[in-house]
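A favour, since you know our structure tokens better than I do. It will help me judge whether the discrete encoding reads sensibly. The space below this message is yours for that.
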Amino acid sequence: QVQLVESGGGWVQPGGSLTLSCSASGITFNIGTMAWYRRTPGKERELVAQITAEGETSYADSVRARVTISRDYVQNSLQLQMRDVQIEDAGDYYCQAGTSWGQGIRVVVSS
């Protein structure tokens, strides 16, 4: 069982930057792909970005040019760096690893 805890959310102005972090604990030695999902108002939960155990990354088209996912294999943590944040990026972001999900963290985008 893996426990995931997100941090780093909050308020950001349009055009600003924000970094989300996810700390994994518990049985972490066999964590494969980790990912960030989000649920934005009026939409279903969607995959934002993911990174495999080998470091291969993939991104949703809507964020590809503005987001970087990274992973610390020693600390068992996951990050999502967001740049030029847009109004439509506002929502709840979730860290995912295997069948485990974090509680989610909110990102508010407003001026």
